[in-house]
Amino acid sequence: MRWAESTMAQLAAADLPARIGLVPVGATEQHGPHLPTDTDTRIALALCAAVEHRRPAETIVLPPITVGSSLGHGTAFPGTLSLFPEELSRILVRYAEWSAFSGLTRLLFVNGHMGNATPLASATDVLRFRRPDLRSSWIDWWCADELVAALVGADGQDIHANRAETSVVLHLNPELVDTEAMLAADDPDRTGGLAFRYTAESLSTNGVTGAPSQATPELGHQIFNLIVDVIDCRVAVALVESAPVLRSADIPRPTWI
Question: How far is CA 216 from the centre of its chain?
Fold first, then answer.
């Protein structure tokens, strides 16, 4: 079920308190010379849709967040739009708060971009403290489990538009990949041994980190299905999970000025 495609009556009849909300958290940013700027959003949304296809009565896909925290991509490579981390964190909290007004109180954010991980940690930390009635967590697709992480990081740990990400887009939307540019886009991971952090223009010649020339749709299909399996398992747990230690509802909560 898609939130954005549903009428008020359909949402009212959907028993939202019984569902897990899947929120695709993407980005709009340069992805080397061969991938579209909405790559991260596209992957996150496709993952959510695949899980929803498996569990149509137990999940609902919320509208994607299409601009993430992409400060690490700098300004030298055109195509990037970015929020600051604290801005994205506030948006994530608002998603949870507003979805709760319609009855949806459990959210799993499906993250398509590394730069979103810190805002997601911050937002879910705020939610668990200030809104214990709402439950939230997130999954970073590139490290969904050990096998996915090994496949994704085979050509460098600081991945971007690399073999794995390019393969996933070749699987999902091959028509959007500039295959000629892809074959000449390899650029190594230069982050090893560095003491400081740098933006993309100081780490890459073309916005790529990794070896997209090695990408195949078959590898993309394998990685995508592995990630869907992980998210699906997380949803299965979330549907029946309760807090390990149940406390009284009258725990005092501080009021912040």
Answer: 22
